[in-house]
Amino acid sequence: RNRVREYLVWRVLDRAIDWFVLRQGQYDRLPIGPDGIYRSEVFPGLWLDPEALVGSDLARVLEVLQGGIAGPEHAAFVAQLARAGGAA
Length: 88
Known about the structure:
The protein is of the alpha+beta class. It has helices at 50-54, 58-69, 72-83; strands at 6-11, 16-23, 26-29, 38-39, 47-48.
């Protein structure tokens, strides 16, 4: 009933991250982009480089995230939240 729409699993021993998205009542793996980046379907602009994260390259993790939140899709999402009273 109150299912989370997306979630991540960090498989520490495998040094891997899996991203799942709820579609038609079941969780499917979110496909990773050809550039190796996950892009959220629920939160526009939420991008993650899983290789950088498991490799502790936090500068790259931040660079990828900032690239996502700099895009027009994220700006539209933030504006929508603000109109709905969901953003500070």
